[in-house]
Every structure is written in C-alpha cells, then in structure tokens.
From TrEMBL:
GO terms for biological process: carbohydrate catabolic process. Belongs to the glycosyl hydrolase 1 family. One of its GO terms (cellular component) is cytosol. GO terms for molecular function: beta-glucosidase activity. Pfam families: Glyco_hydro_1. This is Glycosyl hydrolase family protein.
Length: 396
C-alpha cells in the first residue's frame, strides 16, 4: 500500500504533539526546574531556555499549518498558571487562550494537555500526588483554565502518560531498559485524578471530549511465554486502559516494542542487543504502533483511539520518514482489521528537551539553540502532504 491523502478517512486527526516544559523554557516555578539545577540530581543537562516556545509559539503554529497539518497537541503548564499556592496568573491564562485562538484562526484544532510530567514546586514539595488533597488542588487548576478551554477546544487530554508518572515515582530512570512496575499508590492517584477531572470537564464544558494519553508499547511474548504476558502488561499500561472505558477517547503513545520471556513463571523484559536502536536507546521498530493499538482495543472496548504520540529519535530525516511511513501503514492495517482509530499526532513538531538530555532529536523541525531559528525538515512537508480530507464533523 502506498500512503496518500485517502489512506485515512476524512476528518481523521492529523498533526503533531509538543510538551510545555520541553519547549517553553525557563519554567522556574516547577519541580523539574529545581531538579535540573540541583547538584547530584543525575539530570545530564538542564532545559534552560529550551527552544523559547513560550515566546515563539505563533511561529510554531504557522509552521504546522503551512505544512498542511490539521491538529496541534500542546501542554498547559500548571506551574505557570498557579506558580504560588492559590495564586492564579491571569496573564498566563490569557497566554494559553491566545495560543488556542490563533491555532483556530490557522485552521488547526488545538488539543491541550493539562499535565505533562511537571508540577508546581509548591505542590510537589507538599507531597505531590500522594497529598491527601491532590485531586482537589488539581481541580482548582482545571477550573482556573476554563477561559482557555472555552477559547475553542474540542478535546482535552487530562494527563500525559500516567503510567510513566507512576513508574518514575519508584525512582526509576533509563526506561529504555524496560518499564518497572509503576508505583501502585501513584497509579491509584492517577486514576482518581483522571476520573475527577473528566467529570469536572463534563459538567463545566459538556461539549469537550475528554481522554488521556497512555504509554502503550508493543509488548510481544517469546514463544512459550504467552501465558505471562498479561502479568507484565497489566500493571504497566492495561490498568490505565481499563480506566479509560468511560472516556470519550483514549490516547495511545507508542514508539517501540518489548520482548517478554518466562523466567520461573514470571514475566521478564528481554533486551535484544542486536536490534537496531534509535538515539533514545529504543528498538527501531515502526510497526509497534499497530501492535499497540490492537492490544489497547482489546482492553478498552468501544472507546475511540487517537495516537497522541509516535515518532523516532534520529538525526537522519530520511530514516524518520521511513519509520513514520511504516508506522502509518501498520496503523492503517489495524484499522482495516476493525480497530477504531480516529487520529495520528506525530512526536514531535520540534527538536526539544527530552527530560534531561538534548541529544535525542524527534522533531519535524530543527531548532538552533543559539538563535532559536526554526528550520523545517523534509519530513514536515511529507507528513503534511498526507493530510486526509477535511470534514465539518468531529472525529471522536
């Protein structure tokens, strides 16, 4: 099959994703800023100015729109909205509202993410997600951004990769070697938070479609290990997918696959040292997204899927195009087999800060970190050229 503008149905979401902390720069009121700038933290490089996305967001929107993309997922930074406990920054509420208004003017459907790993420092130092009032405090922030959401948002993602949030709560790092079992208390907190946020949004913004983005890799069992696969996947992503059954849509964020073997009746991740690797250390396996949405569909039932992240860390843009081409073909094949997929958002629009490291480059656009000049790569125009036909209806 050759990819074209008719490969995916009219109205199919077609765009990119970015993260707030990873692009905006100088997010000084957040817990990650403190971590990055603390001695002995283990963070290789700080984010600093990042790619100055806080000031250059209009240029980034223009790049996406001119390429032919239709959808734009970005982050609202809680620590900018509420840098001090109980004090809402009206200026930053207006800042994010302007992003949404301009996106719509350019023909982009904005999809804001409310939480993407970073927390206000005051919240984190007070216990973070283990606080007894964590849900209440987050809902206060959700209420504060009501003017943003009423600026023209059709969809909201409550939490980016809640399973990774819970995994990082165990103190784990270097997730390329396999995902640890996420912290159960934080897992439960993520699910409570998501349910409460979804319910609040449905009351206050009933026309907005709500979901969250779960990291779902294509876990495959070695021959003879099929019986232990569920024991591996359930705490790492399927418990979060189960919690999505009441949502309007669920985001699947997938990059690679992992092999699972049986060791004494227990599952264990197997690292294939001979497999081709990306800059992030993950196996270069484009078809992972097809396997991920198939497995997710078996868990979530009839909830529509949006691929809210998929991409490759590479400095070879021709390899990026080839990876994405194969990923999209695997996604189309899954849809042909009955998986209800409503959109594809590539990670990432820009080369940006990858949580402690500037090395991995996922972007469709390169950024000079000295001047912040943006230079589109051929992959941006290529992806935009495949945009499905527009339709007046909503995709999910």
């Amino acid at each position: 099959m050759e990819l074209s503008t008719t490969t995916f149905p009219p109205g199919f979401l077609w765009g990119t994703s970015i993260g707030a902390h990873q692009t905006e720069g100088n997010n000084t009121a957040s817990d990650w800023w403190l971590l990055e700038n603390s001695r002995g933290s283990g963070v290789h490089e700080p984010s600093g100015d990042a790619v100055d996305g806080y000031h250059r967001w209009a240029e980034d929107l223009q790049l996406a729109a001119r390429a032919g993309l239709r959808d734009y997922r970005f982050g609202i930074e809680w620590s900018r909205i509420e840098p001090v406990d109980g004090r809402i920054s009206t200026a930053n509420v207006q800042h994010y509202a302007r992003i949404i208004e301009r996106a719509r003017e350019l023909g982009l459907r904005p999809l804001p993410t409310l939480h993407h790993f970073t927390l206000p420092l005051w919240f984190s130092q007070g216990g973070g997600w283990r606080r007894s009032d964590a849900v209440e405090r987050f809902l206060r922030y959700v209420d504060a951004v009501a003017p943003v959401l009423e600026s023209g948002v059709e969809r909201v993602e409550t939490i980016n990769e809640p399973n990774i949030v819970a995994a990082l709560a165990t103190g784990a790092s270097g997730l390329a070697q396999g995902l640890p079992v996420p912290d159960r208390a934080v897992t439960d907190a993520m699910i409570r938070l998501h349910d409460a946020t979804r319910d609040r949004l449905r009351v206050n913004h009933p026309r907005i479609l709500t979901g969250w983005g779960v990291s779902v890799q294509d876990y495959q069992a070695e021959p003879g290990a099929e019986h232990v696969l569920h024991a591996y996947t359930y705490p790492r992503d399927e418990i979060f997918l189960e919690a999505s059954r009441g949502d309007d849509w669920v985001g699947i964020q997938s990059y690679t696959r992992g092999w699972i073997r049986d060791v004494g009746g227990r599952p264990q991740a197997l690292i294939d040292d001979d497999a081709p690797r990306t800059q992030s250390g993950w196996e270069n396996y484009p078809e992972a997204v097809g396997g991920a949405v198939r497995r997710a569909a078996r868990v979530i039932g009839g909830v529509p899927i949006i691929v809210t992240e998929n991409g490759i860390a590479t400095d070879d843009d021709s390899a990026r195009i080839e990876y994405t081409r194969r990923a999209l073909l695997s996604l189309r094949q899954a849809m042909d087999d009955g998986v209800d997929v409503r959109g594809y958002l590539h990670w990432s629009l820009l080369d940006n800060y990858e949580w402690g490291d500037w090395g991995p480059t996922f972007g469709l656009v390169s950024v000079d970190r000295g001047t912040f000049d943006r230079t589109p790569k051929p992959s941006l125009a290529w992806l935009g050229s495949l945009a499905p036909e527009r339709t007046s209806g909503r995709a999910a």
